[in-house]
What we know:
It is a single chain. By secondary structure, the chain is α/β, with parallel strands linked by helices. About 25% of the residues lie in helices and about 20% in strands. It is built from 20 helices and 29 strands. The strands form eight sheets. A six-stranded mixed sheet has the order 1-2-3-4-6-9. The chain has a six-stranded mixed sheet with strand order 10-17-16-13-11-12, sandwiched between helices. Strand 7 and strand 8 (about 230) form a beta hairpin. Helix 2 (about 35-45) crosses helix 12 (about 290-295) and helix 15 packs across helix 18 (about 540-545). The longest helix has 17 residues, at about 100-115. The protein is globular. The relative contact order is 0.13. It binds 1-deoxynojirimycin (NOJ). The site of 1-deoxynojirimycin (NOJ) has 7 residues, from loops.
Amino acid sequence: VNNSFSPPFYPSPETRGAGNWTYAVEKARIFVSNLTLEEKVNLTTGVGWTGGRCVGNIPAIERVGFDGLCLQDAPLGVRMTDGVTAFPSGLNTAATFDRKLMYERALAIGEEFRGKGVNIALGPGMNGGGRVAESACRPRLQVVNGKWEEGIPISLVNPPSTPSRVSKDAGVQACAKHYILNEQERNRTTSSSNVDDATIHEIYLHPFLRSVQADVATVMCSYNLINSSWACHNSKALNGLLKHELGFQGQVLSDWQATHSGVGSALAGLDQTMPGDVTFNSNNSYFGANLTMAVNNGSVPLSRVDDMSVRVMAGFFLVGQDSGYPAVNFDTFKKGGPLNEHVNVQDDHADIVRKVGAASTILLKNENNTLPLRKPRTIALLGSDAGPPIRGPNGYPDRGGVDGTLAMGWGSGTTEFPYLISPLEAIQRRAIMDKTLVSWSLSDFDYDLAVSTATGADVAMVFLNSDSGEEYINVDGNIGDRRNLTAWHAGDQLVLAVANVSSNVVVVYHQPGPVNMEAWIDHPNVTAVLLAGLPGQESGNSLVEILYGDYNPSGRLPFTIARNDADYPAQLEFINTNLDPQPQVDYNERLNVDYRHFLANSLTPRYGFGHGLSYTRFNLTNLQVSGLDKPTIQARNIWREESFSASNATNQVGSSLSEALHAPRWVVTADVQNVGGVYGCDVPQLYLVFPEGSGEPPRVLRGFERVTLESWSVETVSFPLSRYDLSIWDTELQRWRIPEGDFDVLVTSESAFDKQPLSGTIPSDW
Ligand code: NOJ
C-alpha cells in the first residue's frame, strides 16, 4: 500500500521582488506589462526540442527588442560545442573542501557560458544517483543516489553564495537542479520518492535553501514524483517549500519532458516548460496555446501567467543580461553547421582544471612513504585507465562509454573534451626529467602481459575506473546508476595479479563515488591508493603533481566508503525493479544518510566521510566556543522574539531564510599546526552532537575549512554557527527549532568517525 501523500499548497506565491530582487522584478514587471497574453505565454514555453541553437530556447519577441533565451547544459562546462573547457566534476570539486577553489571553478564555467551567449546555465546539480558526480553530492544509495552533505551541500559545490555570485559575477543565470528528491537514475521518470517532512527539510531542501540565499536565478523541477505527485506539478514543493518557505523569487523551469499537465502545473508553481513540447518533437505543448486557452476560459488566472512571465524575466534582469550580453554563437545540434561560430572561450581555465584536479585527489593509503615518488628508475603502468581512450576523448556521444582513462561521467552533464591528458602521457613527460624507464600494458585482461610488465619495476601503478551517468544511456547494463561498486573491466583482478609480483603497487582510481576495494585494500603489496574522481581534461597533469609531491594531497572523501556494500543506508536492489509501473522508493533511512547511518548503527567504514591523507602531519589544539550576541538574545530560538513567518514578511524572503536564523550566533575556533616536514593543507571539520532525545543522528557536519600551512606554522580556524545550524525542523510548528539541552561541538582533522576529536559545549543557557 502506498500511503505517501503530498499536501496541496495554493495559490502560487507571486514574486515580490524581495531581497536583492527588487530592481530586477520591477524591470520585469514593466517589461511584461507591454506584452500581449500570447507573448507572455511564449516566455513560459520552450520552442520545442531541437527548435533552436541551444538545448532549451525561449523565442525572441522582436516587437520589444527581446532576443529570447538560450538554456544550455552542463554543470561542468558548456555542453555540445567546441572551444570550451572540460572542468572537473562537481564531486571532485566537493572533495577539495575549498570554497575558494569552488568559486574559481564556478566563475570560470560561468564565463564560458557567457562567452557562448548562454542565458541560463543548467547547473549546478544538487542530487545524484548515477549523476552524483555532476552534483558533488553525497549519495543516498551510495551506488546510486546522491544528495549533498549537509555543510557541504551548499557550501561545497556552492559555497554560501556561489550560485548567485557565480551567476552575477559572470552574468549568467544559474539553475539549481533537480528539484527535488531526484536521487536515482533508474526509474527516474516513474518512481515516487517518498520522504517525510523533517527529512525533506533537513536533508534534501538544504542545498536549494543555500542556492536561494545566494539568489540563484532559476530552479529546475525534476522527473520523479514526490510523495506520489509529479515534481513539476507538486504544489507543496513548488508553491509551498520553494516559493513560500524559501521565498524564491525567480522562475521554476521543468526538466526536459518532466511536465505532466498544463493547468495543474501552472497552478502548482511551474513557470516554464522545457523544451516546450509534451514529448520531443510532439508538436504540442501543455503550455503554449493551451495555456492561453486556459487563461481565456478561466482555468488559470491571468495573474498567474503574469507572475510566470515576470519570474522568467526577473532572472534575466537580475544578472544584467539586458545590456551588452553576447548573442548565442554556437549550434548544439549542428556543430559543423553555419550557425556554429566557433567562439573560443577557454581562456586560461586549464590552470583551474589542473589545480582543482590535484586538490581533489584523495590519498587513502600510503605505506612506507611510497608516495611521493622520488625519481624511480622504473615505473610500470597497468590497465586501460592509464592511457588515452581508443576512440578519442569524445568517442562516445555524451561520454557514454569508457575505453581509456576516465575523466568525466556520461549524460547531459558533459562537455566535449578539447583534449584529454592521460596519466600515461603526463607520467612520460615527467620521466624525461627523472630519466625514468616507463613501461606499460594497457589491457585490462591480459594478466600475463601485466605481470611481466610489472615484474622488477620500482613502482607498479594499476589504474582502475568505474563510471556512472544519466539514465538515457545504458552503458554495459548500468542504467545511469552503477550496478555495483567494484571496478569495471575486472580491474580488481588486475590489482591482485600485479600485487602477486610487485611489492610496491600504487592503485589509482577514477570513479564517480564510493567504490568497493575490499578485494585488495589490505594486501600488503598495495602500498598506496589514490582516488582521483573525474578530474576533467587535465587529468594526467593533476595526477603527476600529486604523485611527485608538487602538490601535497589534501582531498577529502565527500562520502563514506563501506567495508560491506550492505552497510550503506540504502541499497541498489530496492530501486532496481521494473515490476511496478510506479516504483515507490521509501527513504526509510530518513536523516541517517552516509556517515550518520554508519555512526547510528555502529558500523565501521573502510574510509569515513572527511578522510584523506597528506604528505605532512597536522595537530589540532585549543578548541574555544563562544556566543556572539548573547545580550540581545534571551532565547536561542529566535522565533520566540521575532515572528518571521512569511505571511508577515513584506519585503522579506520566506521564513526559512530569516536573517536572524542564519546570522552567526556562536563561533568555534581551534588552532591547527603543520607538524610535518612539508607545506600542505589540512581540512578541519566541525561536527555537532545534538542534545539527547532530539532525534538527530549521532554527529552532523556543520563546518569545514581548508587551511594551507608552511611546515611548523599555526593558524586559527573559525567556524561560525547559526541558529539554523543548531535547528531541527519541527513538523508540528512547521518552523526551525533548537532543541533544549547542551550541544557538543567536535572538531577533527580526521573524519566524521574520529574517536578522539577536540570537543567543547554550547550549554543550554547560551
Ligand atoms: C535532462 C537532464 O536531467 C537535465 O539535467 C538537463 O539539463 C536536461 N536533460 C537538458 O539536457
